[in-house]
């Protein structure tokens, strides 16, 4: 077996861990100190008989010394170190960062996967993220509790349970977690693994990824302007998702630390201030080995675990590919446990046998909704991300691994992004399945507050026809270089008669490597995102880094993007009666201005119907756009009232009252009546019927639109 580390550095660390000096080892072996020094600096190696004596001194076996894939055990018991209470009497009743997010696996999936994307190692290959739910019961649960030294943790949990009424939300959550585990003899573990990621590199306390995640708060340690995270809050969702406030970590490093890369293990516990056996503890605790360099003898640091240990801790990684595994102990999901209104009392809601199934489904849904673009690749463009979810119960497969397929979760948007990556876009939609492309300008402001000037950036806008599997149609989703959905907003004021669509706005690096101003846009938009990274707008960082009015550039981008969408989806007049619209038109009848019969002297003259478009929208309502031709003899002081009725074979036609009636051009709508603008030769208005007052489903009948002169007077 190939050794994982050179003998000299390995021996030096074992001496430090065992609190022995080179002189101490020399005396115990009966050799000179110079000989020990030569081993450590690599000038020589000990003989076989000396190695056997070194194994005895370090209380280990020969295999450990020869392979050097783990540390010796001498003087290094794995234990919990609880931070002592503050000397000034200060108390924290929980980690404030954890309150920034709800205990929701959907939010966890968004934040944890975003962090994995930001830690992507090889930019050519996707980072692979796997979520594993594992329910433990009975003997399997007992073995796991023994592995994490549960008996030493229990007094700290009991201290919170006794004072749960005084210490707020965290203590109540912990109490509920303990109650559920003991009453139902079950515990849910949720592990998040990533591969092709950097791993938690750096020292235990130095500036680096390890310290940022394990030791510090509000430290994102992300320097890349294209990173999704920037506040250092996302990692708190890991602990917020644990009812016990406990997360175990196993990291494979992309850069060696202490000469090692595999199985760097540590645990962190986040609890409120507590008093146990007369001693005060500040809050956090760490599961590791005593640090021989720390000022306090029992301070715990990470350690290099053996394969047996990581297996007992449920932290075994499938390969040596760099990355990190986070194990959330006592995982729960507030949203999936919400009772159906009127069926279950909230106080009686528990994590029953279906909770794992619900969490599994919600993880798949959240990954597909937030990262469909990152999981989309085509041709030479590999996806940024591959994601999957699997579930176990006591080591047996409960739900087979399910790889999240963006084409299944977001078919229209995935089609649009693939067309962009392959260069198969068109200028305007003329057939189903096409993807229209245009650009939208963003003038990125300069740092420091100049009101004028900036860096021009061309964002890419894609539009395609919507499919049912996408969810709500007529939406615009926006993202930047990491391909995570940031904004998801409706496109308003879409012309009635427009086919359902989906639109995508690609900004920054997402717009392409050749996009002008991409880096400036990445930095600017990143500064405009709140901790949830779910919108672009005014933030404190944006105001301080740019100017108090910098957010107006984002508002201009949003307006321009929506205008561009409306322009791309507008149906040309020559095309309005083709396909499905022709079928709707066949069920649409118009009156009160469509015939040119002789009128009695003095009768009101109505404008002529020039064009009528109609469709049944996603709510089941009729949506109608009416073009009127206004002749010179029309009395513009007299309003016109459009009336919608359902077409029936016999008897009076039931009315279809309007829910919305709005003017588009050449007219005004007041109290349901259309007033023509004097001098205008054309007028356009739109109407949507009130589906709540339909006597029959719109799909089962036709529609008649009549024009009446005046307010309610028959023409």
Description:
This protein has 715 residues and is an alpha+beta fold. Strands 1, 2, 3, 4, 5, 6, 7, 8, 9, 10, 11 and 12 form a twelve-stranded mixed beta sheet that branches. Helix 2 crosses helix 3 (33-41), helix 6 (105-118) packs across helix 13 and helix 8 (150-162) packs across helix 9 (168-184). The chain is elongated, with a radius of gyration of 33 Å.
Helix and strand arrangement:
Blueprint: H1 7-17, H2 22-29, H3 33-41, H4 48-57, H5 62-67, E1 79-84, H6 105-118, E2 127-137, H7 138-147, H8 150-162, H9 168-184, E3 186-195, H10 209-215, H11 236-240, E4 242-252, E5 264-270, E6 274-276, E7 279-290, E8 300-301, E9 303-304, H12 307-312, E10 323-331, H13 355-371, E11 385-393, E12 396-403, H14 406-409, H15 411-422, E13 435-444, E14 455-465, E15 475-479, E16 487-490, E17 501-506, H16 518-527, H17 540-545, H18 551-569, H19 580-585, E18 588-591, E19 608-616, E20 622-629, E21 640-647, E22 658-665, E23 667-670, E24 673-676, E25 682-689, E26 702-709
Parallel strand pairs: 2-11, 15-17, 18-26
Antiparallel strand pairs: 1-7, 2-3, 3-10, 4-5, 4-10, 5-7, 5-9, 6-7, 7-8, 11-12, 13-14, 14-17, 15-16, 19-20, 20-25, 21-26, 22-25, 23-24
Helix pairs in contact: 1-3, 2-3, 6-13, 8-9
